[in-house]
Design brief:
Largest sheet: 7 strands, mixed
Strand order of the largest sheet: 10-22-21-20-11-18-19
Radius of gyration: 34 Å
Helix content: 40-55%
Shape: elongated
Strand content: 15-25%
Number of strands: 22
C-alpha cells in the first residue's frame, strides 16, 4: 500500500471511530455541531478542495461537486431542522472515500502487471576494462561495445553473443516459463534474464532502439488510444452530470412552488433532502472509473501473457474480429527447412541421412543445413573428399571411398541413374551411391505443432473466415492450407500483392492480419488490426503492428481474442449494471422512497461492485 493510500486509510478509520464516539456521547447544541463538523472535514476536506478548484477552473460538474453539494446540503438541513443528526452527511462522505480507496487499490493491482513489464528496464550495463567490470548507464553504451552479463542479470541492450553459453528467462517478454538456450553467434534480446552462464555480448543497437525500450514505449503509450466505449462514457458523463444537477435543482424548487400555488404547505426541507439524495445517487463514478479500469486491466493481463496491445481501441477491435488473415512462413510454419520424409531407400534411414549430410557438409544452402541438422552430429570432414557442386542440380562427393550424388532429378538424369518420383510437397533430394539409386529425402518447411489447433479454436470462437497469404507456389501453400483447415489460400504473392488482397477482403467485419512482422509491415499497417507474431526483438513488428505477440506460437492469437472478449464482456456488464441501478435509484429518490442510505449504495456500492468486476479482466492466465 502506498503512502497516500495509508493516509486515506488512517483518515477513514479515524473518522469512523470519531463518528461512533460522538454518537454515544451526550454532546448537544453547538459543541455537537463542531465535533461532527470536525469529523466531516477529516474525511472530506480533499473533496471540498477539489470541488472548489473545479469551480474556479470552470469545470464545475464532476463527482467532487456532486458530493460536496449533497453532503454540505445535508449538513445545512440538519442545522435548519435543529435535529442534531449529522450522520447521513458524514456517512455519505465516509463511504464515498472508502469506495475511492478501494478503487485506488484496484488500479494499483492492475498497474502491477504494467509495472512488472517496466521492470524489464535494466539499471546498468557491465563493461570490462583492464580486468574489472564497470557499471555504466545503458544509454551511454555505443554500438559495437562488448558488454558482460552475469548470471541473474538482465540483458540491457540487444546484441550478438560472442562468448559463453547460458539459458535465458524470457517470461517477462513472452509469458512463457520455458528458458531459451543461447550460444555464441546467437542474438541476445534486451529484457531477458541471464540464468546460468556468464555471457559476453557485442551490442548491435543503441539502448533507445533496443527491444526493451520499444516495448516500454509501446506499453506507456497504450493508454492514449481510447476505445469507443471509453469515448462514449466520457461524452456521456459530460452531458449526464449537468443534466442531473439541473434535475436536482428542479426537484428542490418546483414541487414546493407547485404546492404553494395550490394552497398547500411547500415542505421545502423534504424536497431539498430528496434533491440532495438525488445528487448523491447520480454520481457517475461507477462508469467513469470502472470502464477505463477494465481496459487497463485487460491490457495489463495480456501483457503478462506476452501479448502487447497498443491501446484499448485495438482490444475492442479484437473482440469484434470476423476475418483472420495469416502469413504462412514463420507464422503458421516454422520458417526453417526440416527433413520430413524418406522414401524408396535401399539402405537404412540413418545411413541415407549420414551420406547426404556428409556430401553437403561444406554447403551453406538451407537444404544442406537441414540435412546436417537431421544428422545431429558434427560431420567428420576427413571422410569426405572431392566435393563438386553442380549448379542448380546438386552435389557430387566422395564419402568413405564411395561416389555419392545428392541432388534433384536433373542430376540423376545427367548421371544416367533411374530415380523414383515423389508426390510429397517439399524439396526432394535424390541420393545415389556408386551409381545406384539409394532413395530420396523430402525437405520442407514444417507446420508449427499448434497451428492446426489455433485455427480450429479461432473458428470455435466465431471467426467466420480464415485466409492464408504466401509467396510460395500453389502446391506447397495448398498442402499447408489443407492440413490446417484454412478456408481460403492465395499463393505466389509479392508483398504488394498481399496488401491488395487484404484490401479486397476488408469490409466484411473486422479483419486482422497476422505476420512475422519483418517483411509484412505494409500489410500489417493496412489491415484493421495488424498482429505481429514471434516479434521479440523485431523493431519492424513493434512499429508496424497494433498487437505484438512476443513468441511464435499461433495459440497466442487465440488467447488474444479470448482476453479481448472477456474484457469487453466486463465493460458491457458494468455499463448495463451501473446504468440500470442508477436510474432505478434516481426514480426512487425523486419519489422519496430512497433516502441517503440508498444513495450511498447507488453511488459507492455500485462503484465497488463495478470495480471488483473490472479487476476480473486481470485474470487471463487460464483462458
Amino acid at each position: 500500500m502506498k503512502k497516500k493510500q495509508k493516509i486515506m486509510l488512517i483518515r477513514i478509520l479515524a473518522a469512523a471511530a470519531l463518528l461512533i464516539a460522538w454518537n454515544i456521547s451526550p454532546l448537544t447544541g453547538l459543541l455537537r455541531l463542531l465535533c461532527f463538523a470536525a469529523v466531516y472535514l477529516i474525511i472530506g476536506y480533499d473533496i471540498l478542495y477539489k470541488a472548489g478548484r473545479g469551480i474556479l477552473r470552470g469545470k464545475v460538474f464532476d463527482e467532487n461537486f456532486l458530493m460536496a453539494v449533497a453532503t454540505l446540503g445535508a449538513f445545512a438541513l440538519a442545522i435548519y431542522e435543529k435535529s442534531g443528526d449529522y450522520n447521513e452527511a458524514i456517512a455519505v462522505m465516509l463511504f464515498y472515500q472508502i469506495g475511492e480507496l478501494f478503487q485506488s487499490l484496484a488500479v494499483q493491482k492492475s498497474r502491477k502487471n504494467i509495472t512488472e513489464l517496466m521492470d524489464l528496464r535494466p539499471d546498468y550495463a557491465n563493461v570490462e576494462s583492464e580486468g574489472t567490470l564497470t557499471r555504466m548507464d545503458p544509454e551511454e553504451i555505443e554500438v559495437g561495445t562488448e558488454i558482460v552479463v552475469q548470471p541473474g542479470e538482465k540483458i540491457p541492450i540487444d546484441g550478438i553473443v560472442t562468448e559463453g553459453t547460458s539459458a535465458l528467462n524470457t517470461s517477462a517478454l513472452t509469458g512463457e516459463s520455458m528458458p531459451r538456450e543461447i550460444a555464441p553467434g546467437m542474438e541476445a534480446v534486451s529484457g531477458c534474464i541471464n540464468m546460468t552462464g556468464l555471457l559476453k555480448i557485442r551490442t548491435t543497437k543503441p539502448f533507445e532502439e533496443s527491444a526493451v525500450s520499444k516495448i516500454l514505449e509501446l506499453v506507456q503509450d497504450s493508454g492514449s488510444r481510447k476505445s469507443q466505449s471509453e469515448r462514449f462514457i466520457s461524452r456521456f458523463a459530460k452531458v449526464y452530470t449537468p443534466v442531473v444537477c439541473i434535475a436536482a435543482l428542479a426537484l428542490a424548487v418546483l414541487p414546493p412552488v407547485v404546492r404553494l400555488l395550490v394552497g398547500m404547505g411547500p415542505e421545502w426541507s423534504i424536497w431539498i433532502y430528496r434533491a440532495l439524495t438525488f445528487l448523491v445517487i447520480s454520481c457517475p463514478c461507477a462508469l467513469v472509473i470502472s470502464i477505463p479500469l477494465s481496459f487497463f486491466a485487460g491490457i495489463g493481463g495480456a501483457g503478462r501473457e506476452g501479448i502487447l496491445v497498443k491501446g484499448s481501441n485495438y482490444l475492442e477491435q479484437l473482440a469484434k474480429l470476423k476475418t483472420v488473415v495469416f502469413d504462412k512462413t514463420g507464422t503458421l510454419t516454422k520458417g526453417v527447412f526440416e527433413v520430413s520424409n524418406i522414401h524408396h531407400n535401399t539402405i537404412p534411414d540413418e545411413q541415407l541421412i549420414e551420406y547426404a549430410a556428409l556430401a553437403e557438409c561444406a554447403s551453406s544452402h538451407p537444404v544442406g543445413l537441414s540435412l546436417l541438422r537431421a544428422y545431429g552430429k558434427e560431420p567428420d570432414r576427413n571422410r569426405v573428399t572431392d566435393i563438386r557442386e553442380v549448379s542448380g542440380k546438386g552435389i557430387l562427393a566422395n564419402v568413405d571411398g564411395k561416389e555419392i550424388a545428392a541432388g534433384n532429378g536433373k542430376l540423376m538424369n545427367d548421371l544416367g541413374i533411374e530415380w523414383k518420383d515423389c508426390h510429397s510437397t517439399g524439396t526432394i533430394i535424390h541420393l545415389a551411391i556408386d551409381g545406384d539409386y539409394a532413395g530420396h529425402i523430402v525437405v520442407s518447411d514444417v507446420e508449427k505443432p499448434d497451428s492446426a489447433q489455433a485455427i480450429r479454436e479461432l473458428k470455435e470462437l466465431g471467426i467466420r473466415k480464415t485466409v492464408m497469404l504466401t509467396g510460395d507456389v500453389g502446391k506447397v501453400a495448398g498442402k499447408v492450407a489443407k492440413d490446417l483447415s484454412i478456408d481460403e489460400v492465395y499463393c505466389s504473392l509479392l508483398p504488394a500483392d498481399k496488401v491488395g488482397k487484404v484490401e479486397e477482403l476488408l469490409g466484411n467485419g473486422t479483419l486482422a492480419f497476422v505476420g512475422d512482422g519483418i517483411n509484412d509491415a505494409p500489410v500489417l499497417m493496412r489491415s484493421d488490426i495488424g498482429i505481429a507474431m514471434g516479434a521479440m526483438g523485431s523493431d519492424a513488428a513493434i512499429e508496424a503492428a497494433d498487437v505484438v505477440l512476443m513468441d511464435d506460437s499461433p495459440m497466442k492469437m487465440v488467447k488474444a481474442v479470448k482476453i479481448s472478449r472477456k474484457c469487453i464482456r466486463i465493460v458491457y456488464q458494468n455499463i448495463i449494471f451501473a446504468l440500470v441501478i442508477k436510474f432505478l435509484c434516481l426514480i426512487l429518490g425523486a419519489f422519496g422512497i430512497a433516502n441517503m442510505w440508498y444513495a450511498i449504495f447507488a453511488d459507492v456500492g455500485v462503484m465497488v461492485l463495478a470495480v471488483l468486476n473490472a479487476i476480473r479482466a486481470l485474470k487471463v492466465h487460464g483462458l
